[in-house]
Amino acid sequence: MKTNAETHNIQWLFVRAYLLEFQRCQQVATVVPKLAGQLAWQAPQRGLVKVNFDGPFNSSSKTGSFGVIARDCDGNVLGAAAGKLDQVVDSFTAESMAALKAITWARDMSFSSIVFEGDALTIIRKVTASTMDLSPISPYIVELKFPSSLFVSCLFFTCSSRW
């Protein structure tokens, strides 16, 4: 059985730990300097929604994931989505699937004028090409081209593109 002093000491330690954690959370986060060569996010033109997407690939588990974020011309986040991708063959497939998730998500969000931006140069080139794609990811490319025609405006850029 604990004495009154022991109980008060335990309560004091809890309150002190809670206060220290609260103070730590109130501190301003240190801003990490931008590395040379890193690109800064660029806002879309007024009236457009910029949807950034990415699709990393894990070769050992043959899985991937996707991340999507939409922002307006002021940089305000309009929405975001993320998830797991199963049965992914390679990085091109992961990026294609992520782009498809992004375009489907943007349509579900009722965005009408979109700028899609990702780091998958190959995927974006294939989606914007007027020629028929004959690569192993062509089914994804066809799937990406159709929904993009349902937007009032739909542009695709790589992160390194300047528009």
Describe what you observe in this structure.
The protein is of the alpha/beta class and 163 residues long. The chain has a domain at 49-158: Nucleotidyltransferase, domain 5 (2-Layer Sandwich), CATH 3.30.420.10. Helix content is 37%, strand content 23%. The chain has four helices and six strands. A hairpin with a 5-residue loop joins strand 3 (63-71) and strand 4 (77-85). Helix 3 packs across helix 4. The longest helix is centred in the first third of the chain and has 23 residues, at 4-26. It is elongated, with a radius of gyration of 23 Å.
What's the short story on this structure?
The chain is of the alpha/beta class. The protein has helices at residues 4-26, 91-108, 121-128, 138-148, and strands spanning 49-54, 57-58, 63-71, 77-85, 113-118, 153-158. Strand 3 (63-71) and strand 4 (77-85) form a beta hairpin.
Mean pLDDT: 83
Quaternary organisation: single chain
In angstroms, what separates the terminal alpha carbons? Answer: 72 Å
Tell me which CATH architecture of the domain at 49-158 applies here.
2-Layer Sandwich
CA gyration radius, whole angstroms: 23 Å
Structural class call reads alpha/beta
Q: Which shape, going by the Cα principal axes?
A: elongated
| Secondary structure tally: strands | 6
Helix content: 25-40%
What kind of sheet is the major sheet?
Answer: 6 strands, mixed
* Beta-strand residue percentage: 15-25%
Question: Could you state the order of secondary-structure elements as H and E?
Answer: HEEEEHEHHE
- Show unreliable segments: none
CATH top level label of the domain at 49-158: Alpha Beta
CATH names the topology of the domain at 49-158 as: Nucleotidyltransferase, domain 5
CATH superfamily of the domain at 49-158: Ribonuclease H-like superfamily/Ribonuclease H
**Tally of separate helices:** 4
